[in-house]
Amino acid sequence: MYIFAVSALGIYGIIFSGWSSNSKYPFLGSLRSTAQMVSYELSLGFLVIIVSFFASSFNLQKIIEVQENGAWLGVFFSFLAIIFFICSLAETNRHPFDLPEAEAELVSGYNVEYSSMSFALFSLGEYANMLMMCSTNVVLFWGG
């Protein structure tokens, strides 16, 4: 639960980055990105709750131990694993869910006004979120 609580704080960074650029287009991009992240984060939360009920614990080590004794949860809950993968694609703004950036109309979404190190930090945060989602997917469904 701590992992998803910390990842939910990224929404504030996106809203503040769009608002602080003092332009309406980055602010619109940040609102679109925030709406998408919030909607898919609810689905991810429900999927984690289902897996944790099956494992009888929110502890990631306990979830891995449950999968060591039997089969991977991705085999039993294949539909949930597919939904988790799709939601993680949407959460990290990967194709085909990269609509908040909308290159054709908003240039680059919420980070229009940023360049150099600030843009690099946005990219670093986005790729760190992708790594966290992949790790969470492996721990919850594929044996850790």
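Above is the first protein from milestone M3; the second protein from the same milestone is given next.
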Amino acid sequence: MHIPHSKPFLDSSDANSVNKVLESAYLSTGPLCQRFAQKTARLFDKKFSIPTQSGTDALALALFALKQKPGSEIAIPAYICSALLDALKLNGLIPKPLDISRSALAIKTELVNEQQQNISAVIGAHLFGIPAPLHKIEHPVLIEDCAQTINAEIDGIKTGTTGILTVCSFYATKLLTTGHGGAVITDNIDLHTRMTNNINHDNNPSWRPHFHFQMSDFNASLGLSQIEKLDALLKKRREIALRYYTALGTPKHFHSSESYSRFIIIAEDGAEKLIEKFNYVGIEAKRPVYKPIHRYLNLPKKNFPNAEWAYSHIVSIPLYPAMTELEIEYIQQFLEKHKNEMRCRTST
């Protein structure tokens, strides 16, 4: 048996939605993008959303709209995908990685608040379906990355409702997919207008550079179909997570407020050894972050002890709605057999 680490859930309703666009022959940005914008804004209880071609595009557009001066330092988590660096580089901004907390695996809010006088903005991300306490960040310019925590809550606060801007990725293996895609979401009409003007490049009387980041109706059609079953997809993720926790003997660590975009395990003897054991029996396990940001930037590892710990000990295993019952049972059996070699994140 081989169980891939990630796989999108696609059904006949997705195919029908995409086929209708193909039949219409209208593939560029149009009415379906507008409808998708309305629905993604509602996901985070906000008024405006601009669908983009990727989450990185959404972040680059957000940073540009905030008029951050080139050379400004932007606080980011040390433990996160390197795509953040791409968006910062596009805007001429300097990344300032800060260490993470071991509980939420997100940027440490205390560090942000201690250094907020020295940073121009903050990009905070909720990772792996775990809602982080980003609402405790005191800096007024917070971009909240919610690609992995749609419909999650912390302290009664819905993720994506705290930042001045919220960004999402709808990549193939995210909680809902448009293939490639993303969105930047806000309640601020001035920011929304600024971002709209920065991507609407046609029929302008004069020229200036624009971002060609608009999502197509082709991608939006898949996203609209996915949103219709989002609640069912999240329910399935939570059901699988509970089964994994039960197999590990710790069902009390399951939290219905999490989205479980990944199932995270702490490897007692190091990530690499446990990944090899999973892979040996056909379960594709991975480090959920390929390489921490501070390592890409060649910064001292000693300044990021929690990010280093996460890199060394955290393993992600398959959890997604497209899994078969046989695959879920197979992983449950492995977890139960090897539970003394690993522990759940919430037991730290």
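Note on the second protein: The chain has two domains: 12-228, 230-347.
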